[in-house]
Amino acid sequence: MAWRGGTTTQDRLLSCLPYLLPFIEVSSFAKLPLLRSLYIPFIPLIQLYYGIPFASLIIFFALFLLVVRNEKVQHFIRFHTLQALLLSIFAYLCGAVLDLIGIVQQGASIPEPLFQSVMFTLIFVAVVGASIYSIVQAVRGLYAEIPFISEAAYSGTRD
């Protein structure tokens, strides 16, 4: 869907940048060697992200307050920024739930490495796939439609 006026090339490129956040956030879910190889070009960025205390929190609030809540910024950029933040929150919550399940699962009969490997890969593919889809749509000048997440992003960026 393309509405609320046209988008410039600069708007399209700026709307892609926030999707680095969920991509970095799910880096810990890349347990398979093939998936880890995707992160080789981003190693310095990931080290910087995890090396600075509270970097994720600082980046989150900076993007939310300076971009999403700033009505001077085009709706297209605000929407994609909020959608990237929501994908990042989803990845974080999945990690927290899996940590909790790991604690509960210690007495269960399901082999832990198999369960964790499947869940980590599923979450990784879902978040990276949604991010890539959103980047492609942003480059095309379109709003990415991801169930539930896009609806929340639309409602969070209403003028």
TrEMBL record:
Chief localisation class: membrane
Q: What is this protein called?
A: Tic20 family protein Ycf60
A single Pfam family it belongs to is TIC20
- Annotated membrane-spanning segments are 12-30, 50-68, 89-108, 114-136
Keyword list, A-Z: Membrane, Transmembrane, Transmembrane helix
What are the leading ranks of the lineage?
A: Bacteria, Bacillati, Cyanobacteriota, Cyanophyceae, Nostocales
Mind telling me which InterPro entries this protein's record contains? Tic20
* Topological category with respect to the lipid bilayer: Multi-pass membrane protein
Q: Which family does it belong to?
A: Belongs to the Tic20 family.
Keyword Transmembrane helix in the entry? The reply is yes
* The UniProt record lists the keyword Repressor: no
The organism encoding this protein is Brasilonema octagenarum UFV-OR1
Per UniProt, subcellular location reads as: Membrane
